[in-house]
Amino acid sequence: MSGPRRIRPPHIMGQNVANYMRYLMEEDEDAYKKQFSQYIKNNVTPDMMEEMYKKAHAAIRENPVYEKKPNKEVKKKRWNRPKMSLAQKKDQVAQKKASFLRAQEWAAES
User: Fold this and answer.
1) How far apart are CA 33 and CA 27, in angstroms?
2) Of 8, 18, 29, 77, which is least packed with CB atoms within 10 Å of its CB?
3) CA 64 → CA 49, 68, 70, 71, distances in Å?
4) Which helix (H) or strand (E) holds 50?
5) Which portions of the sequence form the region Disordered (predicted)?
6) Which residue from 17, 51, 55, 53 is spatially nearest to 36, judged by alpha carbons?
């Protein structure tokens, strides 16, 4: 039981993430920018991680009730094509056949 307790506090305070951020900063700048783009955008550095987590934990302790966010309004609706009846399918095939035959006749005349 001593194993999991030893690694928990650093993980709870985000030190594993901060260490990985530092590693990527030194080793691969492009991977760091890709992996932590939102952190960069919000000016979060590896040194700020522990303080950020402490603030988050304090805010949760202050008000632990989860407040559900309102659903965002859907901008686009995906509509599937309605199923065709057998008569519609046969009509569509007949139209395609007629179009193909016209194209064949036109090609033969040219």
Assistant:
1) 12
2) 77
3) 21, 12, 18, 21
4) helix 49-62
5) 63-94
6) 17
List the one residue out of 50, 57, 47 whose CA is nearest residue 14.
Answer: 50
Which one-letter DSSP state was computed for residue 75? S
| Residue in this structure with the two tokens 């009509």, named with its chain if needed | 91
Query: Which residues contact residue 12 at a Cβ distance below 8 angstroms, ignoring those fewer than 6 apart?
Result: 53, 57
- pTM strictly above 0.70: no
Q: What is the CA 24 to chain-centroid distance, rounded?
A: 22
Count of other CB atoms within 10 angstroms of residue 80: 5
Per-residue pLDDT tens for 11-28? 888 899 999 999 999 999
| Three-state secondary-structure class, residue 21 | helix
What's the Rg (C-alpha) of the chain? 31
Retrieve residue 3's tokens: 């194993």
